[in-house]
């Protein structure tokens, strides 16, 4: 049977014109047992469409690891390292991650108590909640009415020492049923988004770039982000803004001397725009929570200076300024009409191009709502490619 693709089911909130290329459901192929030829086609489809959905999938952890690794055969360790180091124990990511003993590159994530699962006698899982991460929270009364928030928009990446995974695979094994929730942005815009319970929400990094006005496109194509050392430890005491798209600047980040041992040579500096290996498109890929500094190149020769931001380049180290600039560039792309909130069914497998989208956990479960997912991503064997000199010329 040939590989067939169909559009993803979009919610009424989504603007279909902005999702023409985004996301496909793939049918007629078993993602756990792909031939080399089928894999090549899936790989091309993933980079072209950013997210692929397979329904009614049976997938062992071994198969999931093999599928994930096929996108980057030289990659080996889990995207955040081996989970055993001092830095990960203090990290804000630590409580969310449990490892499948047989296949430590595959993580068990979800909510509630899970028993006798793939060699784990029992695991207590906790769906991350905005109430422990955001500076402000939805009141318990409003939570009871079904209001919630995006938790944290991000790229799956250690952002220190390791390179961002190319692909993340998410396999829904146990999916609790429940009423839809309403994401409140709580940023003065009045924006709201109705979402399925426990959705994973995605936005396109390509769209994030495309909808920017020319002066911000020019800034984006000329900029690199330097991430903090051990960013998840660094940001642990700090609190996020109400859209989950970055951190409030209150000086709460850990000072360098209180971080686990680090070296500047292992800090990561990435271009703001990452080049898609198949389409050549530029995707705006910044993890706003971990960003510490912005390095802006001057305008190239011959570019129009009028109205340009930082025409002579800049090295911006003021955290508030860095975050304000990133927020200005990223917030438009998380507008309700640009978000794809996946409506999880049991045995859904979603592959997403981690270097082409941003995503977030959403919503809140009650302790008895059991959710079990397998997640796999692998620190890549290379860093993402940035804009070419032609891209800079085109957009700067
Ligand atoms: Fe993630």
From TrEMBL:
Its cofactor is Fe(2+). Gene3D superfamilies: Clavaminate synthase-like. It holds the Pfam family TauD. Residues 20-376 form the TauD/TfdA-like domain. Keywords: Dioxygenase, Iron, Metal-binding, Oxidoreductase. The keyword Iron applies. GO terms for molecular function: dioxygenase activity; metal ion binding. Belongs to the TfdA dioxygenase family. This is Clavaminate synthase-like protein. The lineage of its organism: Eukaryota, Fungi, Dikarya, Basidiomycota, Agaricomycotina.
């Amino acid at each position: 049977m040939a590989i067939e693709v169909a559009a993803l089911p979009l919610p009424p909130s989504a603007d279909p014109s902005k999702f023409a290329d985004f996301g496909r459901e793939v049918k007629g192929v078993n993602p756990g047992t792909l031939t080399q030829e089928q894999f090549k086609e899936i790989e091309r489809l993933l980079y072209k469409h950013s997210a692929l959905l397979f329904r009614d999938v049976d997938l062992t952890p071994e198969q999931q690891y093999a599928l994930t690794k096929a996108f980057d055969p030289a990659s080996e360790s889990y995207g955040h390292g081996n989970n055993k180091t001092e830095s990960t124990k203090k990290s804000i990511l630590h409580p969310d991650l449990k490892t499948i003993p047989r296949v430590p590159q595959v993580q068990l994530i979800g909510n509630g108590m899970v028993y006798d699962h793939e060699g784990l006698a029992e695991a207590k899982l906790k769906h991350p909640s905005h109430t422990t991460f955001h500076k402000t929270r939805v009141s318990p009364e409003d939570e009871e009415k079904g209001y919630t928030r995006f938790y944290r928009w991000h790229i799956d990446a250690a952002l220190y020492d390791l390179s961002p995974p190319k692909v993340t695979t998410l396999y829904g094994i146990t999916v609790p049923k429940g009423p839809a929730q309403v994401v409140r942005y709580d940023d003065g815009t009045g924006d709201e988004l109705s979402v399925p319970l426990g959705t994973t929400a995605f936005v396109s990094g390509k769209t994030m770039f495309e909808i920017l006005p020319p002066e911000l496109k020019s800034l984006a194509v000329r900029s690199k982000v330097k991430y903090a050392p051990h960013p998840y430890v660094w940001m642990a005491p700090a609190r996020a803004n109400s859209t989950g798209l970055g951190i409030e600047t209150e000086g709460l980040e850990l000072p360098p001397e209180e971080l686990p041992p680090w070296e500047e040579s292992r800090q990561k500096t990435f271009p703001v725009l990452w080049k898609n290996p198949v389409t050549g498109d530029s995707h705006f890929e910044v993890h706003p929570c971990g960003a510490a500094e912005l390095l802006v190149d001057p305008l190239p020769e011959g570019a129009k200076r009028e109205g340009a931001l930082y025409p002579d380049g800049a090295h911006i180290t003021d955290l508030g300024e860095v975050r304000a600039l990133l927020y200005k560039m990223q917030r438009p792309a998380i507008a309700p009409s640009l978000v794809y909130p996946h409506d999880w069914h049991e045995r859904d497998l979603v592959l997403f191009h981690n270097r082409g989208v941003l995503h977030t956990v959403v919503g809140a479960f009650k302790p008895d709502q059991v959710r079990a997912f397998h997640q796999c991503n692998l620190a890549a064997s290379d860093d993402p490619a940035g804009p070419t000199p032609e891209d800079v010329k085109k957009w700067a």
